Fold:
Amino acid sequence: MNTILEETKFIMNKYHIKANKSLGQNFLISEEVIQTIIDSSQIEKEDLVIEIGPGLGTLTKHLLEKAGKVICVELDQKMIKILQDRFSLYNNLEILNQDILKVDTKSLIEEEKKKSNWKNIKIVANLPYYITTPIIMKLLEEELPLESITVMIQKEVANRLISIPGEKETGAITYSVYYYAQAEGILEVPPNSFIPEPEVTSKVIKLNIRKQSPLAIEKKEKMFKIIKCAFMQRRKTLLNALVNTKVFSSKEDGIEILKKIGLDTNIRPEKLSLEDYANIAKNIVN
Ligand code: SAM
Structure:
């Protein structure tokens, strides 16, 4: 018997919950997957954990046992009452009924650090898939003092995030993740590990936040803007993509820059290293 499935159905019945598709609600019912997420996030009693989208509290239950404190950020008001009832005996839980994309995570963490001397701050989540990328980019770009981010997301996005620049699955976001973190794939998860079943296969990944960036980059914002332009027209060569998006003022100008930094003028965007893009940024005047 799957006790998590029974428990989930019981809670959903009791509180008259129907999974809200537009909020990306797919509740985990696999003991093995839950255990893998908990184990790979390596939570200790001295850690502060922020859980995004706790839903009915399936992961939260385990996080509360392991961590010093858990802050849950959940947008759906209906889930808040469930979490409050379910975990009323725990004194290490704080629930925020907010949209994670609007939470001032930096101030939230600063306040928590003033209150307690946390060893590590970790994010753990089975993310709502409709906003996977904005959530991950927010957490990375804000340069929060995080140790790791362990999340379940769509497999296809996961593979792009954990690939290394130059590999087959490389996309613009690969470079951002690579700059901020060392990423690892943990476990592929089939649709029948959730109710309701999502339409895609999922994957648990862990982003171990770098203490130091892999290379010193003078013009970081400019470089990431160039990377975005390069991947806007994926089937084109890098040269054409950057001419079309006006990063290079002309084809001749582009050829000159690529030659100067030792790149083939027919190279494709996904073949460049982070350093190559940093070099392009350095050689562009505006
Ligand atoms: N953690 C639960 C589990 O594993 O069973 C639920 C995961 S479900 C995939 C995603 C959760 O994120 C839902 O509870 C949903 O209501 C919540 N959510 C959706 N959009 C959100 C947002 N913008 N901010 C915070 N939570 C959100």
In short: The pocket of S-adenosylmethionine is lined by residues 23-28, 52-55, 58-59, 73-76, 79, 99-101, 126, 128, 131 (CB under 6 Å).
